[in-house]
């Protein structure tokens, strides 16, 4: 027996570019068959990498090894990965994936790498198809396809062991379909053995390499989760490779293969990259199973293996919530002078590029904070108007490249601090915090569209802090934190995030003493691109420094400062 990746290049597709569109659209009749061989419905079919025999869809089983068909309305976050292997304008279906933000797709690392673990050129040759439960390549194609701008691997992917099998793709354009939320780091309850999980995919509808084909419509299957001990015993024995199953990185599920398609329940090649859900969260990514020369899956007594998403959440979350004007994976800075001009400073890791003028006039605002409230991949600004105290969301228009403003709050003149830390209540949307004139810390849960649920009082006594900042996770536990500087002593405190909506922060703990040398603290996010939040600080002399986050919630919270520039006292606001 051997390990079988549950991916496959199955259908060739032609690219159709919609005239005048910035993205690619797959429209009815636009994806026509190639010339090599035709299936009964006119679409060209190819088996996974083991072979290239063309099979008729009439032979396809109406189930995916014991699963049932499902609709787009019940799985709006489901997407397909397409890849142009031969540089001939024809695209293959390779894997499934999950939309986890409007411009982010989570999938398996082996879906976007070659057999040796080298990254494929997804930016140049990959597409993501969303908005359809139908497998691309049939007679009535539908949905929307967009390009891919970059791939991120949360950990070092090991192709031989299929370990750390998770990747995050950034799309060239945000999609309007409802995203799904990954399981959080430390979320153990959803992984309890015996819990029934639901997995989706378009994979092979039978286990026979020579006769099976993919499902023409999205399928789902319910499987019980197994304990690590059961997974290790079953899988290591089946493939005769001690340590093939890696607790903590992998989970397994199923009733055990039957080698009989009429009785078995299993994922198969073509299902790779697709999500496994428990209680509304993605807990797993279809990764691998046991196969043989004759059978691709459903091997007697074996279970299916999935990447354990919660393990990697703290690495992928900063990539989901990118705070970047340049749309790479490093957080950039916004600043404006005492006049009306705003500028962006793009990060290259430990340096800032020369400033670029950011369109618009900003003289009306006395406070500006960076964020991406709608998770569309374009940096937003939260700006308070000096004269009225009204707070606006400055964000990119969905229909153009221009920025528009939406009023979010009125009369916030006396508010002591406004913070956009990201998702503090673990619902997948960026929230807003405000410190009132009396020192109450208020959380405004976001709907992701500039509107908010009823505010929740999270803490009191914050009037003792002269600066309240935060964006992202400073302790590397997958929860967004706050940094606070106390007036009088200028000591720096950390308020660790809890991920709970009712009490989202712990009691602040001092992590550094006497920070009077800095007159401004800025928290743009992950500036150097290592998945840990960083701090940017301006000295009283106007020098700007990067203090890289270490992921430790102690006095070692930051590494030695790195100088980013001089003359920053000339800027009135820095985001």
Helix/strand-derived class? mainly beta
Distance between the termini: 56 Å
Helix percentage range: under 10%
- Uncertain segments of ≥5 residues (pLDDT<50)? 8-63
The total count of strands amounts to 37
Give a written overview of the molecule:
The protein is mainly β and 575 residues long. Helices cover 5% and strands 33% of the residues. It is built from three helices and 37 strands. Strands 1, 4, 11, 12, 13, 14, 15, 16 and 17 form a nine-stranded mixed beta sheet that branches. A six-stranded antiparallel beta barrel has the order 5-6-7-10-9-8. The chain has a four-stranded antiparallel beta sheet with strand order 20-19-18-37, with no helix packed on it. 52% of the residues are buried.
Could you provide a short overview of the structure?
The chain is mostly beta strands.
Keyword list:
37 strands, mainly beta, 575 residues, 6-stranded antiparallel β-barrel, elongated, 9-stranded mixed β-sheet
Summarize the topology:
Blueprint (H helix, E strand, L loop, with lengths): L1 E4 L6 E3 L9 E2 L42 E2 L8 E6 L6 E12 L2 E4 L14 H4 E5 L13 E10 L13 E5 L9 E2 L13 E6 L17 E6 L3 H12 L10 E4 L21 E4 L2 E11 L12 E5 H12 L12 E5 L4 E4 L10 E3 L6 E7 L8 E6 L5 E6 L6 E7 L7 E6 L8 E5 L5 E4 L11 E4 L5 E5 L12 E5 L5 E4 L13 E4 L5 E8 L8 E6 L4 E4 L14 E4 L5 E4 L1
């Amino acid at each position: 027996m051997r390990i079988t990746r549950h991916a496959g290049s199955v259908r060739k597709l032609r690219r159709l570019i919609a005239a005048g569109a910035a993205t690619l659209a797959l429209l009815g009749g636009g994806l026509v068959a190639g010339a090599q061989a035709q299936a009964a419905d006119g679409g060209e079919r190819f088996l996974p990498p083991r072979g290239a025999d063309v099979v008729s869809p009439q032979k396809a089983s109406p189930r995916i090894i014991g699963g049932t068909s499902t609709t787009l309305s019940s799985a709006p976050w489901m997407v397909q990965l397409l890849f142009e292997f031969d540089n001939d304008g024809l695209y293959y279906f390779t894997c499934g994936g999950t939309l986890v933000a409007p411009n982010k797709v989570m999938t398996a690392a082996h879906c976007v790498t070659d057999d040796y673990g080298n990254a494929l050129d997804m930016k140049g040759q990959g597409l993501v198809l969303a908005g359809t439960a139908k497998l691309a390549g049939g007679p009535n194609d539908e949905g929307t396809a967009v390009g891919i701008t970059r791939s991120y691997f949360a950990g070092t992917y090991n192709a031989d062991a299929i370990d750390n099998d998770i990747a995050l793709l950034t799309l060239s354009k945000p999609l309007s379909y409802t995203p799904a939320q990954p399981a959080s780091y430390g979320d153990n309850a959803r992984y309890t053995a015996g819990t029934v999980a639901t997995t989706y995919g378009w994979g092979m509808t039978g286990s026979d390499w020579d006769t099976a084909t993919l499902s023409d419509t999205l399928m789902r299957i319910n499987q019980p989760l197994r304990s690590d001990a059961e997974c290790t015993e079953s899988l290591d024995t089946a493939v005769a490779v001690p340590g093939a199953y890696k607790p903590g990185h992998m989970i397994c599920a199923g009733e055990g293969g039957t080698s009989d398609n009429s009785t078995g329940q299993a994922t198969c090649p073509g299902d790779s990259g697709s999500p496994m859900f428990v209680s509304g969260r993605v807990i797993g990514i279809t990764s691998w199973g046991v196969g043989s020369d004759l059978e691709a899956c459903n091997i007697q007594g074996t279970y299916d293996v999935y990447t354990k998403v919660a393990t990697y959440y703290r690495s992928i979350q900063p990539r989901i919530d990118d705070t970047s004007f340049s749309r790479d994976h490093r957080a950039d800075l916004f600043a404006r002078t005492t006049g009306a001009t705003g500028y962006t400073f793009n990060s290259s890791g430990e340096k800032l590029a020369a400033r670029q003028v950011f369109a618009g006039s900003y003289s009306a605002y006395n406070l500006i904070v960076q964020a991406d409230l709608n998770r569309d991949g374009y940096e937003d600004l939260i700006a308070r108007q000096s004269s009225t105290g009204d707070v606006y969301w400055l964000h990119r228009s969905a229909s153009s490249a221009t920025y528009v403003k939406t009023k979010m709050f009125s009369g916030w003149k006396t508010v002591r601090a406004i913070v956009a830390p990201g998702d503090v209540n673990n619902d997948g949307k960026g929230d807003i915090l405000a410190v009132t004139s009396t020192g109450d810390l208020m959380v405004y849960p976001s709907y992701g569209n500039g509107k908010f649920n009823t505010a929740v009082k999270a803490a009191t006594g914050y009037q003792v802090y002269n600066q309240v900042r935060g964006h992202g996770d400073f302790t590397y536990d997958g929860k967004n934190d706050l940094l606070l500087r106390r007036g009088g002593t200028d000591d720096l405190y950390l308020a660790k995030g809890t991920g709970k909506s009712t009490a989202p922060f712990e009691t602040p703990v001092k992590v550094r003493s006497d920070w009077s040398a800095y007159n401004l603290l800025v928290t743009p996010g992950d500036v150097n691109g290592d998945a840990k939040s960083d701090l940017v600080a301006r000295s009283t002399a106007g020098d700007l420094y990067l203090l890289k986050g270490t992921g430790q919630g102690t006095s070692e919270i930051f590494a030695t400062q790195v100088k980013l520039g001089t003359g920053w006292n000339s800027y009135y606001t820095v985001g």
